[in-house]
Amino acid sequence: MSQNIAETDLFADHRITAMGLFTEAFTGVSAKLANQIVGHKLVMAEFEVLLRLSRSPGGRLRMSDLAAQTSLTTSGITRLIDRLERGGLVERTACPSDRRGLFAQITDLGRARLTDVLPEHLGLIDTWLIDLLEPAELEGFLGALRKIRDAVRPGAAAGTAEPVEDHHAK
Description:
Elements: H1 5-11, H2 14-38, H3 44-54, E1 60-62, H4 63-69, H5 74-86, E2 90-95, E3 98-106, H6 108-128, H7 135-152
Antiparallel strand pairs: 1-3, 2-3
């Protein structure tokens, strides 16, 4: 059975290549990072929440904003915060301006856990991402990722101002 030319063109489409490369790079780097996180008795979702809280003003975010920033549903974020709270890594606090609202706030123990994880984690990010790109490539890459993220996840920065980062300092 022979392939027709239209099928061949469709399968060779540059959009499929772009998505495939993006997926392969993301899953490859994620696997390297996840292995390291598991060594610290955390799963990636727990680490992500602790990191987001630690980088937010006052070390806290509204539960709804935290759900919007992650790939978790509101019930999923509630279960995750329950688990982190049982471990003493976060606590819930009431929102003073909205009686129905709750904040998740990182505790000192949660910050200490991140302090243990981050040096090796940052080393892996350097090895598998930062050091592979020239400074101009990295700047363009980060800009492109923000543009894509903002389009597909408009609530991803909810409740926080994104920090200005020096990508060249180590």
